[in-house]
Design goal:
Strand content: 15-25%
CATH architecture of the largest domain: Sandwich
CATH class of the largest domain: Mainly Beta
Largest sheet: 5 strands, mixed
Oligomer: single chain
Length: 298
Amino acid sequence: MELLHHNISTYGGGVDELIWLITGFVVFWFAVSFLALIAFSLGSRRKPGVKSTYVKGEGWSQTKWIMIPVVLVTLCDGVIDVYTHDVWETVKGRVQDVKDFKAEEVVEIGIKAQQFGWEFSYDAGADKQFFTTDDPIFVRDDEGTGAKMHVPAGKKIVFHLTAKDVMHSFWVKNLRLKQDAIPGRFILGWFQVDPEYMKTWRGEGTRVLEPGQNPVDGANVVEFKGKNDGKGQRVEVIPFDQRKPLGDNWAAEDDSKRTFEIACAEICGVGHWSMRAWLVVDDQAAFNNWLEKQRANQ
């Protein structure tokens, strides 16, 4: 059983380690404090013939009970601060500008929050501004089930986040990502779905590759395991059009290993509870096909 939601992002491991580090310190000092409280309570309880002592808190023999824990807790806080800086630089500091990444590694997406739903734009158009009248690929929730934000695994997703009305918060727990959305302002952020996560997508099927044959030749492959070593190695192959149907409960993690909830983590009105969308992870070929269909349907 996983205590945290399954992580699918490349930087989520660092966030998880930071969570466990802080949790470890908190549990340790809670236990020490609680045990000390019990020990002092029992040791200082009223005893027949023994008068109470007035403690002024003077001298090292008395102040050490305060100063030593203060120094130790401060050192623990310093360890947390150092580790937090590394994680923060990875998640927030690396994308001050989309030019920080190579163009072939990046997919840019505009994200707009509004009461009570999400909209996604996959092309800023000629004016290079998301959510203007010339955006050629625009995705919204037209069915009341939540808009779907498709992303390719392995690519760096650079998002431009804004809000239409009030403050919202873009939260995808499986990415370890949470970012406030502010009206009138575009906030830049990024994430990358670990390409290794492609191996957990649903589906069945095998085939034998010919020596030297590329696993993706002749099929829009979602998953393959193993490498073709030139000896006709058998590998598992899941063509995109042969994936298992997801069923009515298509957004549940136990039913779909590539669909994850996008939620609003900022109370934004009476419909806040219903404000969600879905992150759908594709391989590159499936993402390209989906993108072309969206372009054709606009």
